[in-house]
Amino acid sequence: MHNDSKPRVYNSPPPFWFLIRRAFPSASLEHQIFAFYPAIYSSVPVSADLMEHEGTHLKQQGSKLGALVWWFRYWYSPGFRYRMEVEACTAQYHKAQTMASREHVKALLEKMADNLSSSVYNNCVTREQAYRDLANATYD
Ligand SMILES: [Zn+2]
Which of 65, 70, 111, 131 is most deeply buried (CB count within 10 A of its CB)? Predict the structure, then answer.
């Protein structure tokens, strides 16, 4: 295993949490995982498929400065936020496919669509649209 290449997970609030919580009032340290290059911040164990999701955000950020820019765009642009999440959810889905049952993976798609269309992401998309886009993005 290449544990060195795995991002570190800290059980502490992400950098600039005081700003993030203002930008995303529904975000919670107990229920969400945060990616802020080069690490992941979570108070719960991060499953392999979620690791893939957060790892995608780290790649999108690319550097510490990149993380700052990413978070700013992520806050002010619902379109950017949505694109970043669809990419991360797609990676998560494909990882889940390698380790979980068909039923579980199907349920994951529903859960991701629920989640993406919720207040947690400041309602950047409708449930119907999120499900359609995720189904298209993950289809293989
Ligand atoms: Zn995400």
Answer: 70
Q: Which helix (H) or strand (E) holds 18?
A: helix 17-23
Average pLDDT of the chain is: 93
Burial of 87 by CB count in 10 Å (0-12 exposed, 13-18 middle, 19+ buried)?
Answer: middle
* Cα 9 to ligand 1 centroid, rounded to whole Å: 15
CA–centroid distance, 84 to ligand 1, in Å, is: 7
Tell me how far the alpha carbon of residue 57 lies from the centroid of ligand 1, in angstroms.
Answer: 7
pTM for the full model? 0.93
| Structure confidence by residue, pLDDT tens digits, 90-118 | 999 999 999 999 999 999 999 999 999 99
Distance CA 15, CA 36 (A): 7
Cα of 114 from ligand 1 centre, angstroms: 13
